[in-house]
Every structure is written in structure tokens, then in C-alpha cells.
Amino acid sequence: MAATLDDTDLAIIALLQHDGRMSARAIAREIGGIGDRAVRYRIRRLLREKVIFIGAVVSATAIGYPVAADIVIDAMPAQLPGIAREIAMLDLVSYVATSVRSGQISAQAYARDEREMLELVRSLANDYPGVTRVHTTVLPQLVKDITDWPAPRGG
Q1: CATH for 7-48?
Q2: Fold that domain 67-139 belongs to in CATH
Q3: Torsion-angle region of 40 (φ positive above 0: left; ψ -120 to 50: alpha; else: beta)
Q4: Rounded to an integer, what distance in angstroms lies between the CA atom of residue 132 and that of residue 128?
Q5: Which residues of 97-131 are buried (b: 16+ CB within 10 A; e: fewer)?
Q6: How does pLDDT run across 50-87, given as a tens digit for each residue?
């Protein structure tokens, strides 16, 4: 069953997205009309229900990996899960998901330069038995990332 979020939950989530280290007291002050104890309770509930996760997010650009790409890998359906697991272990790959019906793996990767990204794509196309095609879109500008995604209202 999906978690139900009210306006206070959404406000807490938005503030934590801006600063994951914000104290319950500061959140309560910012929202108004709620005590820090209630904020702590809500944060614990959101964590317990896996609505939010609090942790560090690495900025690929800040650590020297400015080239981002979305990669779609077509693969033989029987080999899809194994190929996806192997790709997920690659250091340059930050995201992997599969679509069994279409026989595709969707991945996102970061590289130090275009040459390194090209080497990754060539490896995906040539070094994984069962891969039939690799489509790549280099992403010159990240406009909105998952860390910027607010929980939808009235979901």
C-alpha cells in the first residue's frame, strides 16, 4: 500500500531535500504550527515506510566526471537479468533498470571525457554476449535530477 502524504509531510521532505542535515527544530520553525517532536516522529515514519532516504549524493561533475549519458542496451530476453547485474557493477554506471517485455536495459553513466564514454559504450556493445544493440544519448546539461524531484501533491 502506498504511503499517504499530507502537506506537512511534503514540506518536511522539501526541506530535507534542500538540506538533509536540517534539524527537526529548524524544520519545525520553518514550517510553523508543528513541534520538533512531531517533526522527528514524521521523519522516522517517512524513513520506516521508505518514503525517503537520507544520505550523501555524489556530484559527478564536482569529482571530475562531467560527461553524462543515457544508454539503452537491447539484449536477448533470457540474458537480460544477468547482463543488467553485470552492468550495474561498473564504476561509471550510476543507474540500471530493465524492461523485460522490450528486452532493454536502461542505464545512466558518467565519464571523465567523451573518449572514456565511447570506450564504455564500445565495451557494452562488444564484451557482453547477448547484447544486440546499444543506443547512447550524451546529456550536455542536467536540468532536473532525482534529488530535485518533489513528491507529487495529491498522489
Answers
A1: 1.10.10
A2: Alpha-Beta Plaits (3.30.70)
A3: alpha
A4: 9
A5: ebeeeebbbbbbbbbeeeeebeebbeebeeebeeb
A6: 999 988 888 898 899 999 999 999 999 999 999 999 99
Contact 43, 8 (CB under 8 A): no
Residues 106/107/108/111 CA torsion (nearest 10 deg): -140
Residue 95: strand pairing partners? 108
**Beta pairing partners, 73:** 105, 134
Report pTM: 0.79
The position carrying cell 544493440 is 133
